[in-house]
Amino acid sequence: MGSAQIQTLITVAGVVLVLAGVLGVAWLGATELRLRAVRRVRLAPTVTGPTPGPTSGVGEQVMGAVRRLGQQSAVRDPAKVSALRTMLMQAGYYNREAPVIFLGVKAAAMVAATAGVLMLLPLLLKGKGGMLGVLVAGGLSAVALLGPEQVLKMRRQTREREYSDGFPDLLDLLVASVEAGLSLDAAVTRVTDELERRYPNLTIHLRMLVLELRAGRARKDAWTSFAERLGIDDARSLATMLRQAEEMGTSLGETLSVFSQDMRVKRMLRAEEKALALSAKLTVPLILFIFPCLLGALILPAAVRLMHIFGKH
Hints:
By secondary structure, this protein is mostly helical. The chain folds into 2 domains: 3-46 and 58-128, no CATH class; 160-278. The chain has 11 helices and no strands.
């Protein structure tokens, strides 16, 4: 591909990005005019506090702008806020305004990426940036589109691993407490104090469960909400088992004991699965790093000796 073709591709990409930016700004303006009244009514209860004066910090002003962007996104798609709130709670964000802030951060990232691309356009059109400018523009767009979701996904996966590791211990302690004569609610309170240092994130959800039970919420509903906040299959199975045990009147201690044994077997199977998969995962590092070193250590002495022998002749 010649330089003229590359220049043509860069020019076409720049024109497309400019048109996309203009259309995006026009769409945002039209949507803002259409949703202004809806937003004013929706946000009226949250604006009753004192208005920040000119002495407010830069961080508060930035956070206020992010909130406003997130509130606009929440008004456009209210059905998405509930599912997003559950995902954020699974990732460890328990603030009531967490969905609004997350949507605001996504919108701010898109605005920043658009501004960065528009700043790069003069260089791209003049041919000074070359492929590096196109790569930078593509990188900015990818970060703006996928960055917040990936951060949220990584936090969720990290916490889900902790929940999965701590759930068998939680069940063992529940079984011991119930068999010792405590009720299920008192056993949950006792287990929460025991697991606080080992699994702090799991303890937060247990404290929420304890507060819901003390507030008078039905046990099956409280455990179902607990399972949804954790987002793991073991918690959902426990909530289903407790609901069935309560409806059928079976012994809670025996039911928890059987379920705890099942969890221990599952944890052992997961450990065996990881151990068996280790050999396959080590294949690539062995081929790329260890095998060349071993080959060099075995062949180089013989190669040096052959060079000496043939050098004498």
